[in-house]
Amino acid sequence: MTSGYLVAFAASLPVCSWLGKKIGAGRLWLAALAVFTATSGLCAAAPGIDPLIALGLAQGLAAGLLIPAGQTILGQAIALAAVPPGIAAYKTVRPSQLPDATTQVNIVQRVGGALGGALFTVIFANGLSHGAGHAFHATFWWLTGTAILALGSAAALQVTLTLGRRLPGGPADPPLCDQRAQG
Fold this sequence. Notes:
The chain contains six helices and no strands. The chain has helices at 2-23, 25-44, 49-77, 85-91, 98-128, 132-166. By secondary structure, it is an all-alpha fold.
C-alpha cells in the first residue's frame, strides 16, 4: 500500500499547478482535503487488503495535491505568490536576523515531526496489542479524525473570510477559494 500511495502522490504533483489555475488553489486544496478525509475513513473501514490498496492510491492522489495547493495559498496570503512560503518568510527578515529565523523554522519543523511521529507510534503500538489489522484501522481512524478537524477549520475560515468581505470596511479581495493561481 505504501508504494502505491507514494507513486500516486508523485503522479498527482504535476497536475496540481494546472488544476490550481483552472479552479483556484483554495478550491483545489479543499477538494483534495475532502477526498483525503473520505479515503482515510474508508481505509479505516476497509474489509481487506485489496480495497485498502485501492483506497491508498486515491488517498495518495489527494495528498499529492494538498501540499503544493497549500503552499500556493500560503504564498497568496503573504502576497508573494511567486515565492515559496518558506523563502517568502525569509524575505521579511533582516540579514542580521537570518540565523535566528532559520533556527526557529527548523525547530518548529523538527518538533512537529517528532510529536507527530511519536503520536503515530503510540496509536500504532496500542493498536498492535489487538493485532496488526487493528493497528492499521486505529491509525486510519486517527488520521480521519485529524483530517476532519482540518476540513472543519478550513471551512470555518472560508466562511469567516466570506462574511468579512460582506461587512462594511471588509477586505476587498475575494476569499482564498475564489482566487486563481497567478502564473
